[in-house]
Amino acid sequence: MKRSRINAAIREATAAFERHGWTLPPNPRWDVTDFGLGDFENCGLVLVNLAEQPEYCEKLMFTKKNQKTPEHYHASKKEDIICRYGELAVQLLPKGQPLSVQVNGELQAVPTDKPLVLPSGWRVTLTQQVAHAFWAQTDYAVVGEVSTANDDAQDNFFANPEIGRFSAIEEDEPPLVRLVSDA
Questions:
Q1: Count: domains in the chain
Q2: What's this model's pTM, rounded to 2 decimal places?
Q3: Domain enclosing residue 17, as ranges
Q4: 146 forms bridges with which residues in the sheet?
Q5: C-alpha span between 57 and 26 (Å, rounded)
Q6: Which of 6, 23, 77, 125 has the fewest beta carbons under 10 Å from its own?
Q7: 16 phi and psi, to 5 degrees?
Q8: Which residues pair with 73 in a beta bridge?
Q9: CATH number of the domain to which 88 belongs
Q10: Ordered strands of the 106-110 beta sheet
């Protein structure tokens, strides 16, 4: 992924966060990924780690319409995914029988034959081993995540073996910020 594309994504996400009243802490830890597939517009995500503690973590994310975070699950992490602005489609997998998950704190049998669409303010709680993918249904979505301790390097299991959690970076301009994946 070119550094210029990463910088542009950070600028776009920052503008959206500011537009919707999200003030970032000083020196936040940014993460921009195309999941190693080289197609950021269709398969990518911008994340900001707001809190990283041994017991919990909080992230703010930015995704554009139909820009997927591909199918994956976590072996250890339990997470709440919260739509903060726009509409977020969350596809629970595998398709077939409904899955029991909490939506806005209430246990529900959620069909897996179509995405669960979260409007602004809604959240879904995903426990360990629940495979999911998500994307914005609107032009973009601002998404929150609150979870148990986060280990991006060891606790993301993708259905597509070609996917890597962090993108290789082609340095074509100076970085705006230091990324989580930067050495």
A1: 1
A2: 0.95
A3: 3-158
A4: 58, 80
A5: 17
A6: 23
A7: -65, -45
A8: 157
A9: 2.60.120.10
A10: 29-33, 45-52, 56-64, 140-148, 79-85, 123-126, 99-103, 106-110
